[in-house]
Design goal:
Number of helices: 3
Structural class: alpha/beta
Shape: flat
Number of strands: 5
Largest sheet: 3 strands, parallel
Strand order of the largest sheet: 3-4-5
Oligomer: single chain
Order of helices and strands: HEEEHEHE
Helix content: 25-40%
Strand content: 15-25%
Length: about 110
């Protein structure tokens, strides 16, 4: 079995990570307040999302977001993981949220 595909994949991953450029955005201010770019409703694979908490933070950083809200279903642990990872790498601010099941009134 040839190792060439695995070597090429490894080289691609290393070079892709090494040359991953973060977007540069100008600082926008309105009425003396800084305007932040953010997504306040994101799920990880702990509920019905696709990305892990660390992947979500990296994706938000690559997209140039200043803040991301991790709002899982009935749990906050993934949001806390994302916040700790983001602080460790200097990523976007992570707002931890929780989506509770809807309650019907009778």
């Amino acid at each position: 079995m040839s190792r060439a595909p695995f070597v090429l994949l490894a080289v691609g991953l290393v070079l892709g990570a090494a040359y991953d450029r973060l977007p540069t955005r100008p600082v926008v201010a309105r009425a003396g307040y800084r305007v932040l770019a953010g997504d306040f409703h994101a799920h990880t694979r702990f509920s019905d999302g696709f990305l892990g908490p660390w992947d979500l933070v990296l994706h938000a950083r690559r997209r140039g977001l200043d803040v991301v809200g991790v709002t899982e279903h009935n749990q906050v642990f993934p949001g806390k993981l994302a916040r700790a990872f983001s602080r460790a790498i200097g990523g976007p601010t992570v707002v931890v949220g929780e989506r509770s099941p809807s309650r019907s009134s009778t």
